[in-house]
Each structure stands twice: as structure tokens, then as C-alpha cells.
Write a structure and sequence with these properties.
globular; Aspartate Aminotransferase, domain 1; Aspartate Aminotransferase, domain 2; 15 strands; Aminotrans_3_PPA_site; binds pyridoxal-5'-phosphate; alpha/beta; single chain; aminotransferase
Amino acid sequence: MIEDMLRTPAAVQDAERHTAHNYHPLPVVISSAEGAWVTDVDGKRYLDCLAGYSALNFGHRHPTLIAAAHAQLDKLTLTSRAFIHDQFADFCRELAALCGKDLVLPMNTGAEAVETGIKVARKWGYQVKGVPADQANIVVAEGNFHGRTTTIVSFSTDSDARADFGPYTPGFRIVPYGDLAALTEAVDEHTVAVLLEPIQGEQGVVVPPEGYLPGVRRLCTERDVLFIADEIQSGLGRTGTTFACEQEGVVPDMYLLGKALGGGIVPVSAVAADTNVLGVLQPGQHGSTFGGNPLACAVATEVVRLLATGEFQRRSTELGERLHTGLRGLIGKGLVAVRGRGLWAGLDLDPSLMSGREACERLMERGVLAKDTHGSTIRLAPPLVITEEEIDHAVAQVAAVLAG
Ligand SMILES: Cc1ncc(COP(=O)(O)O)c(C=O)c1O
């Protein structure tokens, strides 16, 4: 197509004109999608290797999820939690069963699930553990990414996320990720929780050393501290198991879930924990107008059912092996390291070759969408419906970009 007949340049400009510049998107304007593929306003197709930061684990417009959404749209969309609706019980029961926990508390965004986890941990600390009023602390990790609220950015170590948003919420201690000795040192009698991503996604798909998560579990049990696993990006099949913690045989006290829970259709997040933890909340103490709404529950219940089959976890394990084998073959050919689990990979580029942003732009030109992070790292997190051939295609495009 002749360059000046393309709709993309004008559509990119148009999209920028009336928005705050809190994102720096790749210059692609998507208008439709199916499975692992998206199509732009000029009809060009791209293999989606970001999958909405794992919000699209089941691909774009998974037929079962779309059918559930359509059916629910025709019946009931919102009640608020002032009333009970008929999609609520199934969702809560089935998600609690998937998590192996007694209770769930539905919210909307990931950040809200994290905020909920923090509030519940503090209340648990005061009411169950017996921490003196307003003395609770929560230990978190360097390089964390848990969302964008003022409290959450208070314990971020990323200056872009944090700078000029103070005053900051107190009550958090930051220790190096993967360092059990430092964590042990930081925990004291007023510690109510350790809040961690089992794999740090935004940091570049950083997998902690083997034994770290079981060590955190042991420490938390010994010191009467809640282990809160932020599985918002790592959970729901991404790493080859329902939860990334499972890879190390670890069960946290609280799961924070989001992204894929909404099936790529609606924002749905949740906290799952046992009654001795989530039971500390009483009416009026926490909530959200949209949390647990009928449309969200109808879609998310089907998400839980898809996960209960085990098919997506299996695909992630098997296809992830293929992805990682392919990518490891590029170490020394433009990549300096590849990390990750399942269909989730962080690729460190040789910084002398190009930046992560440049690599993503070149991948985009070759019809593959991915996202850079922290300078020279790119993340690949394709939908779990991706095929072997599509993985080989993605790896071949990465190889071609690295080869210049
Ligand atoms: C691990 C983790 N926690 C929390 C969040 C925040 O989720 P949301 O953007 O839905 O608020 C994210 C988003 O990327 C995340 O990766």
C-alpha cells in the first residue's frame, strides 16, 4: 500500500491529541482481534506477544468467554453489592475452589486487589495477631510492581512510578528480591505481611532463586506473618501452573488476582484467602461499586472453568518449553539472557545493539507485538492459545531483528 494512503499515522496522532501522555504506545492502532492475532486500521495483522500484560491469557475474544458476556449483557449487567445477583455465588465458590481458599473478595483492577490485600493484612494484624494500633508493617521487594495508587507507589523502587507523588504512605519495608536473609532481617513483631510477586513481571520477568519462595513461606509461618502472593500477572496459567507459586510447591495465605480473570473482556480482580484472614472484614469496611458485578462474574466464572480443565496450564508448559528453547538459541546472537517460566519470557538484549524500545518497534514492523521494559529488556507473554508454528514465527522474528 502506498505510504500516504495508510490510516495509521493520522490515527496515531489523533489518539495522542486529547490524552495525558502517561503511556508511550507503539505506533500501531488496532481495530480487531481474534485468538493470538490483532489487526490494525490498515488491515495489517500482528501476532500479539504481550497479551495485555497477561490479561489476554485465553486470547482475544475466546468464544466461550464472548458467549458468556453476550448472554449476560442480555440479562443483567450491574446491581452493586447492595443487592445479590444470580452470578455471584458460582463465581465466588468456583474461584475459591480454584485457589484452594475459603473466601474471595472481588474487585476490578489489579491495583484494587493489592490495596485490598494491604487493608486486610493490616486489619488482620491488629485484630488477630495483636499488633499495636497503627504500628503494622509490610515487607515488599525491590523492583516490585503492584500498581499505581498512591499507597502502592509509596513502596515502588522505580523513580518514574514514584517521583513527585508524595507524601507517601508509611508502613512498608523494602528488601532485595530473592534475598531470604534480608527478608528475615526485616521481619519483626509488627510485620503483618510479606507482599511479593512470585515472578517479577514488570521488572523483566525476574524469577527468584530456587528455594526462595519456600523459604518465604517457612519464615511467614514461623513468624505469624501473612504471605501475600501478587499473582495478578504471573497467575492463571501464565507460567504453566494455575499459580506461579505452585512451581515451587508453595501456598501463600492470600492470592491477589486480576488481569486474565476478566478474560480480556472486563476488568475483574480478586483476593482469595481463608476465613481467618478475609473474615476480618465487616460490612461497610471495604468495597467497590463495580466489584463482583454480574457481567464480571459471568465472564470470570467461565475463566475459572477454562482454568479448571488444566488445558491452558498444559499448553503454557509445553509451548513455553518451545519458546524458551528457541530464545535460548539466540543467547550470544544479540541476547545476553533469557528468563521466565511457561509462556512468559524476559529477554535481555545486548545494549550495544539496540534498546528494548527499538527492538519492539522493529518487531512491530515484522508483525510481532511485544513490550520493552527497563532499557534493554523485552517481554514476551503471548496468549496461551498460541500455536507451535506461531511461536516459531515469533522467535524467528526476534532472531531477524537481532541480526539487524
Ligand atoms: C504484578 C502486578 N500487580 C498489580 C498490577 C496492577 O494491575 P492493574 O493495572 O490492573 O491495576 C500489575 C499490572 O501490571 C501487575 O503486573
